[in-house]
Sequence to fold (449 residues):
Amino acid sequence: MDDYRRIADRIAADITGGRLRPGQRLPPQRAFARRHGIAPSTAGRVYAELVRRGLVVGEVGRGTFVRATAPDGQPGIALTEAAGTPLVNLELNYPSVPGQSELLAPALAPLLRPDALGEALLRPAGAAGTPEARAAVSALLARSGLPAAPERIVFTGNARQAIAATLAALVRPGGRVGVEPLTYPLVREIAARLGLVLVPLATDAEGPVPQAVADAHRSAPLSALYLQPALHNPTSLTMGAGRLRQLADCVHRLGIPVVEDRIWAFLDPGGTPPLAALAPGLVHLVDSLSKRVAPGLTVGFTVVPRDRVEAVARAVRSGGWSAGAFALEAAVRWLGDGTVDRLVAAKRQDARRRQRLVAGKLAGFAVRSDPAAYFAWWELPAPWRADTFTAAARAHGIAVTPGTAFCVDPSRTPDAVRLGLGSAPEPQLARALETLAGVARDAAAAGTG
Fold:
C-alpha cells in the first residue's frame, strides 16, 4: 500500500475511534509533514485522501477540519456530554408517512408466496427491465409532462446507479462535466470514481446561466451537464420555464448532452416540465421510486435518447447496477394499484407541514427553501462557520450537513448548512429546529470550533 494511504488509514482510525473529534482542526500540511517525517506533497495526498473518504473538510484560509459524521454516514463522537443523547438526524432525508407500511404490504403479499417467489423473481432483471415495468414507468413519466416511449427507459437498482451509468456512458475519464456550484454530494463521488472533472457553472436566481455554459464549453469542451432543474438539492431552487427554454436552446446549439436529475420533482406538481421534454435528443432524465415509496424498496431509471439506449445499458451491465426482478415487480404493482399516488399525495402534505415548522422556528434567519421541499439551505449568521456550527449542532445531538459537502469549488465554501427534514418525526424535528436556532444565536460559541 502507498505510504500516504497508510498514514490516511491511521488518521481515519483516530477519527472513527473518537480520538479526533468533529470540528477539530488538523495541523497545517507542512506541520503535519514534519510531524510524520514525510514530504509536504505526501501530506497533501494524505489530506486529499481523507477528503475523498468524507472524513474531513478543507476550507481555503481556514484549515482542514474533522467532519461531523463518520464516512459510513453513521454518527461520530459528540463534543460534549450530550454524546449519550439520541441523535436527531437532519443529514439523511428518508421521508415516510403514517400508514406507509400498510399501503405497501398488500402488493407484496402475493409475491411472497412460495409458488410465486420463483427463480425469475430472485434474479437481476437487466437494464431493459420488463415490459410491464417499462409501461408502468412510461405512464408515470407521462403524468409529469414527459411522454417517454417505453423502449427509451433503462432500469437500475437506484437513482445513484442511474446517474453513474449515464455519466459513464457519456463521458470518458478526464472529461469535463458542467454542474451547479452546489450539487448533490454523491455526484462528486461518482465523478471521482469515474475520473471526471466537475466544472462549476455560474448561476443566478433562476439557476445556471446559459452564457456560463457556453463560456465553459468554449474554454474546454464539456462532455455533459449534470443539472437539478426541479427542487435543487440543497437550495430547493426550481428553474422557471423561461430559463429551461434558454438552457434547451443552449445545449441544442452546442450539442452538449445533459443528465437531468428529477429525484425530488414529484413533490411539486405545479412545477415546470422536465428539460427532457424540451430537448429529448440530448437530455437523459434520471428518477427513482425511493423518495416516493421507501429508500430500501426502490428502482432507479433513466429516460435515454433513442440513439444512446444501448450505450447506457452497457454501462449498467458493466457496473453491475441492474435492478432486481422482485423490486421491479413490486414497483409495477404499486404503480398500478394507486399506492405510489397515495404516498406521493401524503408526502406532499408532509413536506409542507415540515416547511411551516422551519418557517416558524427559524424565523429571522437566512433560510432558502421551497414550501414543497424536504430540505432547507441555511446561510448561517456571522461569525458562525459551517464546520463549527456542524460540530456545535452535533454536541447537542443533532446532525446537519455542512455546505462544504455540496460545494464543487473547494476555494469557495459557503458558511451554510443543509437541513434534511424528511427523516425525523415531526415533534423531534420541531425540538431540533428550536435547539439549532438557539445555537445560532449564541455568537460566543461560534469561535469554539
Q: What stands out?
A: Confidence is low (pLDDT under 50) at residues 70-85.
